[in-house]
Design goal:
- The model has no long low-confidence stretch (mean pLDDT 87).
- The strands form two sheets. A four-stranded mixed beta sheet has the order 6-5-4-7. It has a three-stranded antiparallel beta sheet with strand order 1-3-2.
- Strand 5, helix 7 and strand 6 form a beta-alpha-beta unit.
- By secondary structure, it is α+β, with helices and mostly antiparallel strands.
Length: 205
């Protein structure tokens, strides 16, 4: 991703491009892009304007939910102006091949990101990380004393970089081994499907 950032002149631009390329039917305004891509709103506005002027994005009016600051109060719906991928962009196919085909994170970086979330016994990636669209999950973690909040924070950061919401599974070692023993469908789908075992101290087939 760093290489692409240098080529495109902005790491934020690469992250925002991935967001729109992987979610072509969705529309986002600047605050939404800033939140999902973890960039400042001003940076998001600047990049969105540039991509719109380049013909990559179209303006799009859509209904957005505005969360209430008060508890138990339903969010309000508001019509806002945002942006959506312009599917007729002439270089869209080439742009997608370049941006989306780039491996989001290598194995060492994945291990580094999840360091400190507990005693990991098994960590596998699939889905967006190995171009396996039919995978049950993108990330599957098994271990002891796992910190769920820390795991979610790591995943949210990775989502901002890969441009798509990640599906994941987290199990304590004892529960995982039990599910393996009873041929639990979810666990078997993960293990039998194509995946990359980044960490494997359990050696379960």
């Amino acid at each position: 991703m760093d290489t692409l950032g240098k080529l495109f002149g902005s790491q934020a631009r690469v992250k925002i491009l991935r967001l729109f390329l992987l979610n072509p039917q969705d529309a986002y305004d600047a605050p939404m892009v800033a939140e999902k891509s973890k960039v400042s709103v001003s940076e998001a506005r600047r990049e969105l304007t540039l991509l719109k002027n380049a013909g990559v994005l179209n303006t799009k009016s859509f209904t957005k939910e505005i969360p209430s600051k008060k508890k138990d109060v339903k969010p309000k719906k508001k019509r806002v102006s945002g942006f959506q991928l312009r599917t007729a962009f002439p270089l869209l196919s080439s742009l997608k091949s370049l941006i989306v085909s780039e491996t989001p994170l290598n194995r060492d970086e994945i291990v580094k990101r999840f360091k400190g979330i507990g005693k990991i016994k098994f960590l596998a990636v699939s889905g967006i990380f190995i171009d396996e669209p039919e995978a049950r999950v993108d990330v599957f973690i098994v271990g002891d004393n796992l910190k769920k909040r820390s795991i979610e924070n790591v995943l949210r950061t990775i989502e901002s970089e890969v441009g798509k919401e990640l599906s994941y599974g987290v199990l304590e070692t004892s529960e995982f081994l039990y599910r393996v023993s009873v041929y639990d469908k979810f666990v078997r789908d993960v293990l039998d499907g194509r995946h990359d075992r980044v960490i494997d101290k359990l050696m379960v087939e």
